[in-house]
Design goal:
Elements (H helix, E strand, L loop, with lengths): L2 E3 L20 E3 L2 H7 L12 H10 L3 H8 L17
Antiparallel strand pairs: 1-2
Protein name: DNA (cytosine-5-)-methyltransferase
InterPro entries: C5_MeTfrase, SAM-dependent_MTases_sf
Keywords: Methyltransferase, Restriction system, Transferase
Amino acid sequence: MNECVWVPDPATPPAPDPGGERKPDAIRITATEAGILQSFLATYPWQGTKSRQFRQIGNAVPPLLAAQILTPHRGIRARQSGFGLTA
């Protein structure tokens, strides 16, 4: 559930691999790291077991997305500088 495999950019030529085609290694990320990828602060208080925390992150609306959707409806103009991330 919390494994990620980094897939290389197709526009970037692959590095030579003398052993043939090699799949990238999977890495595990924490709930905090997953939250940061979704634009939550690193200090956001996820609750419960690891599975419940990942479910919360997956079901949440990312803060930056919510801000981009809501700012026009609030009659204000969104500024990129107003959406900074702090980790």
